[in-house]
């Protein structure tokens, strides 16, 4: 059975668009008989990484801090798939950034230089073999996710684990308004979760359906500029 651990980095936690996309993806994974668990980064009481490399070069695998990460590290070791679910937040909300830095104790610093970059790996007792990104953004364009995709890909490459794809939903808040397209997006997201567990990968057609435009760029811009204008008038 595939075990899945999802970290939701959204400040809105259960109420946000990140959760909406994550829920659909996890439903698909469950339908394919995966065991899933979600952890909310904002709820974790974890201190920032000190950067002292204590867990690498003083006490191998042991963090200098004792906090909520103590109970999360065993779950991370047991998971086959790690989902990073986050909004684009210039580039990441602080909770998930903090979480990523605190992964150091499960990384073994046996460094290799390949394909122009330094690779480490997870310790042998860590089962994670795939990392997936689910990200939502407020802006219209898909290119706006580049920085977040790059971070997730880099996390995967840095520990020599497969990056199994990026589920990207631009202008995510409009999913509620355009019911038909919004539902098509969620169906495709569910199918992506199913595909990942059953087939080990997500088809490019499914990813395209998930990221499809819900309105035109001009409509989007006009709508948001109008909203700001109204707010400005009522605040003056
Ligand atoms: C501080 C901050 C920075 C943001 N930066 C971006 C951005 O660079 N690109 C983007 O598309 N959306 C950006 N957004 C919009 C969020 O990604 C969007 O509102 C998203 O739906 C929030 O996720 P949630 O619904 O799970 O809370 C930003 C929002 C905030 C508050």
Can you describe what's shown?
- The chain is α/β, with parallel strands linked by helices and 236 residues long.
- The N and C termini lie far apart (58 Å).
- Helix content is 42%, strand content 20%.
- It has one domain (3-235): Flavodoxin domain (Rossmann fold), CATH 3.40.50.
- The protein is globular.
- Flavin mononucleotide binds next to helix 1.
Question: What is the name of the CATH superfamily?
Answer: Flavodoxin domain
CATH architecture: 3-Layer(aba) Sandwich
Write down the domain tally: 1
Largest sheet, order of strands side by side? 2-1-3-6-7
- Give the structural class: alpha/beta
Strand-residue proportion: 15-25%
Compressed to H and E, one letter per element, the order equals EHEHHEHEEEHEHHH
Annotated CATH topology: Rossmann fold
Topology diagram in text:
Elements: E1 3-8, H1 17-31, E2 35-40, H2 54-57, H3 69-78, E3 81-87, H4 94-101, E4 107-114, E5 117-122, E6 130-136, H5 146-158, E7 162-169, H6 179-199, H7 204-211, H8 217-235
Parallel strand pairs: 1-2, 1-3, 3-6, 6-7
Antiparallel strand pairs: 4-5
Helix pairs in contact: 1-6, 6-7
Bound molecules: flavin mononucleotide.
């Amino acid at each position: 059975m595939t075990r899945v651990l999802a970290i939701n980095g959204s400040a809105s936690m259960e109420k946000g668009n990140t959760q909406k996309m994550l829920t659909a993806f996890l439903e698909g994974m469950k339908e394919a008989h995966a065991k899933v668990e979600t952890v909310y980064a904002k709820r974790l009481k974890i201190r920032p990484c000190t950067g002292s490399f204590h867990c690498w070069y003083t006490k191998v695998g042991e963090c200098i801090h004792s906090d909520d990460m103590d109970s999360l590290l065993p779950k991370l070791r047991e998971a086959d798939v790690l989902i990073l679910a986050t909004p684009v937040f210039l580039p990441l909300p602080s909770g998930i950034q903090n979480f990523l830095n605190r992964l150091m104790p499960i990384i073994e610093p046996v460094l290799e230089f390949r394909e122009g970059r330094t690779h480490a790996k997870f310790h042998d007792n860590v089962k994670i073999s795939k990392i997936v990104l689910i990200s939502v953004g407020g802006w219209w364009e898909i290119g706006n996710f580049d920085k977040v995709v790059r971070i997730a890909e880099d996390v995967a490459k840095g520990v020599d684990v497969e990056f199994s794809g990026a589920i990207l939903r631009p202008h995510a808040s409009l999913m509620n308004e355009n019911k038909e397209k919004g539902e098509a997006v969620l169906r495709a997201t569910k199918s992506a979760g199913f595909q990942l567990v059953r087939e080990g990968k997500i088809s490019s057609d499914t990813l395209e359906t998930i990221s499809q435009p819900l309105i035109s760029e001009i409509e989007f811009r006009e709508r948001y500029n109008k909203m700001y204008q109204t707010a400005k008038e009522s605040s003056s």
